[in-house]
Amino acid sequence: MTLDFSSLLPYTDQILEGLVTTVWLTVVTTVAGIALAVVVAYVRDGARVRGASLVSRLLGGYVEVIRNTPFIVQLFFLFFGLPALGVPISATVAALIAMILNLGAYTAEILRAGIESTTRGQHEAARALGLSRLQSFRHVVLVPAFSRVYPSLISQCIIVMLGSAVVSQISVFDLTYAANFIQSRNFRGFEVYLVVTAIYLLLAVGLRLVFEFVGRRLFAFRQGGSA
Amino acid sequence: MTDFTTWDIVRNLLLAARWTVVLSLIAFIGGAAVGLVLTLLRMGGLRPVRWLVRGYVDLFQGTPLLMQLFLAYFGAAVLGFDVSAWTAASVALTLFTSAFLCDIWRGCVEAVPSGQWQAARVLGLNYLQSMRHVILPQALRLAVPPTVGFSVQVIKGTALASVIGFVELTKAGTMLNNATFEPFTIFTFVALGYFILCYPLSRYARYLERRLYGAGIR
Q1: In the Cβ-directed half-sphere of A98, how many Cα atoms lie within 13 Å?
Q2: Chain B contact for A81, CB < 8 A?
Q3: Which of A6, A50, B82, B99 has the largest CB neighbor count within 10 A?
Q4: CA–CA gap between residue B194 and residue B2 (Å, rounded)
């Protein structure tokens, strides 16, 4: 058994290109996915107070379908299925949509858990103080819920970043695609995957540090509080 | 080229779904066995061992499952073994599952109040005896709902074995798609297959969780 990492050196550009793709896919997905989740959580929170509507039921179905099927199948469904229905879609767009829908569903469920622990009395107090439903949702329900479930949210975003390795299977040039590409040229599969796996590990650690930094800023007023 | 009726598609997918189920069971049972040993080591006294287990868990939780599968597949070749997709998928998914279950179960053991430990030790029980008679029975009640919930992740994880050539539900779907060019129908059925396997487990996990809260623990 011999390991030869020097055979990777000519392919630094490919690894960098893949790294850039993985990072920007993750950043866009994190922002858009969390935004989607907030909308879903808002509608479902309304349903909790006023009774289920058709929209809230549909959103509930969306969350369950995403959470109970593999990401790779969701990706294939979008990438192969939409063009067959006459909607042309590029690999990158399919990957992005699949990732956003995925993170959105999981985050909506995480937020729901945080929201349900807000007592009804707080809701009513906010309304009694003259806050609109949107205002009371934002200040009384959403922000405390976020700070409560923030650790789960970090983990979920990391899971989606790691799961994005799968987009290589529809030929998006991400980190994993770069690994497959190099492996097909220099036949040093094990070395390539070892290096790329290490990069993913560093990305996961880095993402967690960034999130923790942002979290300290965002929820600074709650530190040491009862939250 | 032969024509595929909808029934042909469904029949082929059902046949392939067997291997999704078998691989899930292997990964879950193997992962539970390895995960239990890891949990005991993690909770034990030896500091270097605890760190090693923690490193193992962080490693598997911090890297893509797809990479773990590739490494199992290509790593064995480097070591001189000629492994099948079956072996590589079983090993990778077992290790992946063990790391996550170890993390879940550690949390459950830690949730048992430390007074229980002290009481057990004062009564003269050693580490293994306290674990077996006092801590584990209590931790087990807490552990069941998240463990059932994680089984859903295991089933979904087996879909990635398709990438290294293991013919299960997802791989059968891509193969049928190449033969029939009916991606919409096929991947709807594939997704439905996973949903039928996973949704009852998700619901059951949620039911167990509610019942646990109802029982007044925590």
Answers
A1: 30
A2: yes
A3: B99
A4: 27
Question: According to CATH, what is the number of the domain A11-219?
Answer: 1.10.3720.10
First to last CA, chain A: 55
Separation between Cα atoms, residue A78 and residue B45, nearest integer Å: 50
Q: How many CB pairs under 8 A join A and B?
A: 126
Q: Using alpha carbons only, how large is chain A's radius of gyration in Å?
A: 21
Q: Do B199 and A68 touch (CB under 8 A)?
A: yes
- Among A116, A197, A202, A211, pick the best mutation site for testing chain B contact (most B Cβ within 10 A): A197
Of B66, B177, B194, Cβ closest to residue A165: B66
CA-based max dimension of chain A: 73
Distance from CA of A22 to the nearest CA of B (A): 12
- Mean pLDDT by 10-residue block, N- to C-terminus, for chain A (227 residues)? 80 95 97 96 84 90 97 97 92 97 97 83 85 86 89 95 97 96 89 95 96 88 49
Is residue B37 very low, low, confident or very high in pLDDT (cuts 50, 70, 90)?
very high
Q: What single-letter DSSP state applies at residue A224?
A: T
Q: What residues 37-66 of chain A have any CB closer than 8 A to a CB of chain B?
A: 64-65
Q: What is the CB neighbour count within 10 angstroms for residue A215?
A: 16
Per-residue burial over A19-42, b = 16 or more CB atoms within 10 Å of its CB, e = otherwise: bebbbebbeebbebbbebbbebbb
With beta carbons under 8 A apart, name residues in chain B contacting A8: none
Whether the Cβ atoms of residue A76 and residue A2 lie closer than 8 Å to each other: no
Q: What is the dihedral of CA A4, A5, A11, A13, to 10 degrees?
A: 180
- HSE of B187, CA atoms in CB hemisphere, 13 A: 24
Match 């599968």 to its residue by tokens. Answer: B69
Can you list the positions of beta strands (E) in A109-203?
none
Contacts of B173 in chain A (CB under 8 A): 73, 76
Chain B residues touching A80 at Cβ < 8 A: 177, 183-184, 187
Domains of chain B plus CATH, in order, are: 6-213 (1.10.3720.10)
Contact residues, chain B, for A179 at CB < 8 Å: 67, 70
Give me the amino acid identity at B75. Answer: G
Count of CB atoms situated within 10 Å of the CB of B87: 15
- Other CB atoms within a 10 A radius of the CB of residue A216 amount to 10
